Amino acid sequence: MMGQSPRYYLGEFFQFVYAENPGAFLGLGGGLSHQLRFIIFAVLVVLGLGGMLWYLLKKETSKVNLIAYSFILAGGFGNLWDRVVHENGHVVDFMLIEVVGPLRTGVFNVADMAIVAGVILALCGEYYFDGRKDKKAK
Q1: Which residue spans within 28-133 are E strands per DSSP?
Q2: Closest by Cα among 137, 40, 47 to 89
């Protein structure tokens, strides 16, 4: 897709467009130096993902949390892989949703979708499933 025009689907609602993201969510931190971005978005991410994986392996957790954290781990490792493989340390994003007029998402990728789905599932799991257990215990 690099160097190609965007492809539109469902009118202009969904687009495939090539973008390289030097930072995190919506390019946050993209203006930092290459070395600092490597420390934050590679080294700290490896430590964070490793800690999350260790936590999942050592602590008994619900199936909902296991699935949620698996999505987060998969997305995190996917973006990490992109950063390590591309010599400039960027993540390739390629999807964009044009909601209405100027209202649209940032450009994202499948790994980002997995992370967001995992976070939403974890939050719902904590609120709904764990909250339900607390009510039964009373």
Answers
A1: 91-100, 103-104
A2: 40
82 is catalytic: no
Of the listed ranges 3-12, 66-75, 96-105, 122-131, the least confidently predicted one is: 122-131
pLDDT tens digit string along 68-119? 999 999 999 999 999 999 888 899 999 999 988 789 898 999 999 999 999 9
pLDDT, the chain, mean: 89
Rg for the chain, CA atoms, rounded: 18
Query: Catalytic annotation on 112?
Result: yes
Domain boundaries, the chain: 11-137
How many CB atoms within 10 Å of residue 86? 13
Question: Exposure string (b/e) for 17-41, b if CB count within 10 Å is 16 or more?
Answer: eebbbbbbeeeeeeeeeeeebeeeb
Residues 82, 112, 130, 134: which is the catalytic one? 112
